[in-house]
Amino acid sequence: MKEYTITKSDEGRRMDKFALRILSNAPSSFVYKMIRKKNITLNDKKASGKEILSAGDKVKFYFADDTFDRFSQREEGIIPVDLTVPPIVYEDDDLIIVNKPAGMLSQKSSADSVSLNEILIAYIKSASNDPAGNFDTFIPSVCNRLDRNTSGLVTFAKTYRGSKYISAAFSGHTIKKYYRCIVKGCVKDDLNLTGSLIKDDVNNKVSIYSDESTGKFINTVVHPIRTGKDASLLEILLVTGKTHQIRAHLAFAGHPIIGDEKYGDRMINSEYRKNFGITHQMLSCVRMEFPLDFELENVAGKTIGIKEPKEFGKVI
After folding, report:
1. Within its chain, how far is the Cα of 85 from the centroid?
2. Cα(201)–Cα(162) distance, rounded to whole angstroms?
3. What's the domain range around 134?
4. Among 103, 150, 238, 289, which is least packed by CB within 10 angstroms?
């Protein structure tokens, strides 16, 4: 018999989903059969599988050791130990918000790549009472991704509860995300840009159209902060959050982000690389505003923010 005591990280998960996570190599039909036959119990009682787990609940698996080992066996991931954790802007029991540097992946792009996700998992393991950090039932993960060469705020869920509510909030656009960027040209007035976007998955590039019905609807709100001779510092409210939306939408509007190799102006990029050493797009997520009625009480109604990167000040 194997017994699991539910911790805060799994609070809010359905009992059947918890069992399926533990028995990751078992067919789902087998797991549900074991629940019906009381080979898997909740607090020593027969369960339907639909119960919502709370911290302190006990789930027991009445299996022979070899059966349990066979169905619960999982591959061991290799977590690097010599990685530097980016600046942590906010942390509580459910959530970490970090300032990701430009050049770092938010999540793996290949099996042998290293990303912010692996770095923060290693951080949690090192800070916990369980250095092995098996994460049998919930694997902490990044909830919002930034492009590799975009810097700024990234959220990371430490618990199932955190992941559930943060992911839903990003999907529902109830967390407001603000970016700062430096673009080509003088932008003196506020802009409310709308249109549609179509993604080319083969080339990992998007196209923008003024006709809102051509692709997925997009909305990008622009507010100028400072304007120079041939460049502007903008604050962007990302109303919809599509792939490369800010970069492509601003380029479509005639104001490509300086340093953006994919959607930018090559001559301008070359000039700023030569004069200021700019080697990546000048785009950073600088602020998140959480709604007052947000389910994660510690951040409800809060604004989490950082300053724009220092290199922005060199340019404008």
Report:
1. 16
2. 30
3. 88-171
4. 103
pLDDT tens string 237-254: 999 999 999 999 999 999
Residue 101 lies in a domain: yes
Q: Which of 171, 201, 236 corresponds to the end of one domain?
A: 171
Summarised one tens digit per residue, pLDDT across range 2-44 is: 888 888 777 888 999 999 888 888 888 889 999 999 999 999 9
Scored b (16 or more CB within 10 A) or e, 120-153 reads bbbbbbeeeeeeebebebbbbbbbbbbbebbbbb
pTM for this model (two decimals): 0.75
Task: For residues 157 and 184, state if they share a domain.
Answer: no
**Cβ atoms of 241 and 173 closer than 8 Å:** yes
Residue 81 has pLDDT above 80, yes or no: no
Contact 53, 18 (CB under 8 A): yes
| Tally of structural domains, the chain | 3
Tokens 């918890």 found at: 18
